[in-house]
TrEMBL record:
Organism: Gulosibacter chungangensis
Protein name: Fibronectin-binding protein (FBP)
């Protein structure tokens, strides 16, 4: 394997790419230029952030345990039909220009199990469904092990205890610090883990999602545009938006969502588990596991993807993808539609090279002026990208600062002529 360092790609819209020096670091001028560009994009009327597995991988690297790999097989059994399941999943992934993963094989196995059920081949159907159950159960347990390691790292007494928490809050903070006159941040993720929920708790961020209720939160099929406001002292009829609020959606479900009684509920599973014994993997709401209701086979994923499309496919929108590998065709189609709106902008951030991004560019409209690329270890890592984000300062503080400096300047202009007259006399 070659030991050569990966070259970072830094392109800000239609401008020529920035050249990184041999040390792999940006100059002070380049850093300021990237920061100013990102600051402008983060202040657009609508802002969305799409998080992929790259964020979990970065946090896991800091805590010493990586999230579960999706590049594995549903079963290593060489007897039929599992070799054919792997072949079909690989073919379907290659058709969209990416590598095969566990989701592809689970989806292929579910299709086969349904077909076997139609043919009445109960024995073969049960064999396939048992493999699906085992693969999903193993995945859920590994995700919980990953969460548990993050939480144990958080509770350490040494200086490394809050390293992950600080990195996550430094990353999310500039996105959440939206001016009151701007739309809320729309936060999306394809991850099953609850790393973003953990970061929100540390940051004091209120997440508004489709779930309603405290004891047994239930997924609402009808989107309700709730928000949080407060009334300033002495002011009536002019409520203001509460700081630190974001709209949140997990596009591929979550390990603590489950099907029960024809509804989707969020279970009370601690960060890192354990999972209750009564909750089977077959009832877990993680993509592509469908509901057992024939009329809602795409439920709740269709509702969540509609939320994603409604958030990004509108004028004056910026979508930032971090750690997303462009391997999901249903998400890519929405992004392609978004780029057809002239006032939208896409920012792609990734530490690792994205072969699927090249395929996405070749298959869809990818206007250079509407896109920004920050790819490579020098700019696409969690800490590296966070260092390029603009500093968080309240707009009211900045306005007060400018007002004070303006008054101070005028006062000095009035005093200087008087001093000159006194000296002359």
């Amino acid at each position: 394997m070659s030991g050569s360092k990966q070259i970072s790609v830094i392109r800000l819209g239609a401008d020529d790419p920035l050249q990184v020096d041999s040390s792999g670091s940006l100059t002070a001028v380049q850093t300021r230029r990237v920061e100013a560009w990102l600051a402008a994009l983060l202040q657009t009327e609508h802002l969305s952030l799409l998080i992929g597995n790259g964020l979990s991988a970065a946090a896991g690297s800091m805590a010493g345990k990586h999230p579960p790999l999706m590049s594995r097989h549903i079963s290593e059994d060489e007897e039929a039909p599992f070799p054919r399941i792997r072949e079909y999943a690989k073919e379907s992934a290659q058709n969209v220009g990416r590598d095969v993963n566990l989701e592809d094989e689970i989806r292929a196995a579910m299709m086969l199990a349904d077909g076997l059920a139609v043919l009445g081949e109960k024995s073969n159907e049960n064999s396939v469904r048992d493999a699906i159950e085992a693969a999903m159960s193993s995945l859920l347990n590994e995700v919980l092990d990953f969460e548990r390691n993050i939480w144990e790292h958080h509770q350490k007494s040494d200086s490394e205890a809050l390293k992950v928490a600080r990195a996550l809050t430094q990353f999310l903070g500039p996105f959440v610090a939206r001016p009151a006159q701007r739309d809320r941040l729309n936060l999306f993720t394809t991850n099953y883990d609850r790393l973003l929920e953990y970061a929100a708790d540390v940051l004091g961020l209120h997440l508004i999602d489709r779930f309603e209720g405290r004891l047994h939160p239930k997924f609402s099929a009808s989107r309700i545009n709730l928000d949080l406001h407060y009334s300033p002292p002495g002011i009536r009829g002019e409520p203001r938006l509460v700081d630190g609020v974001a709209r949140f959606a997990k596009l591929h479900g979550s390990i603590d969502w489950s099907f029960a009684r024809g509804e989707i509920w969020r279970d009370s599973i601690p960060f890192g588990g354990p999972r209750t014994a009564s909750k089977t993997a077959a009832n877990a709401v993680i993509y592509p596991n469908p509901a057992k209701d024939v009329e809602t086979l795409s439920y709740p994923y269709a509702e969540l993807f509609r939320d994603f499309a409604a958030a990004v496919c509108r004028p004056n929108t910026t979508l930032v993808t971090f750690g997303y590998g462009f391997g999901d065709g249903h998400i890519n189609r929405v992004i392609a539609d978004m780029l057809r709106v002239p006032s939208t902008h896409l920012v792609v951030v990734s530490r690792d090279p994205l072969s699927a991004l090249d395929s996405f560019k070749a298959r869809t409209l990818f206007p250079v002026s509407q896109t920004t690329e920050l790819l490579g270890p020098d700019v696409g890592g969690l800490e590296e990208f966070s260092s390029l984000l603009p500093a968080i300062t309240s707009d009211r503080i900045l306005e007060a600062q400018f007002e004070y400096l303006n008054k101070r300047s005028k006062l000095e202009d009035e005093i200087e002529p008087k001093n000159a007259d006194n000296e002359g006399s």
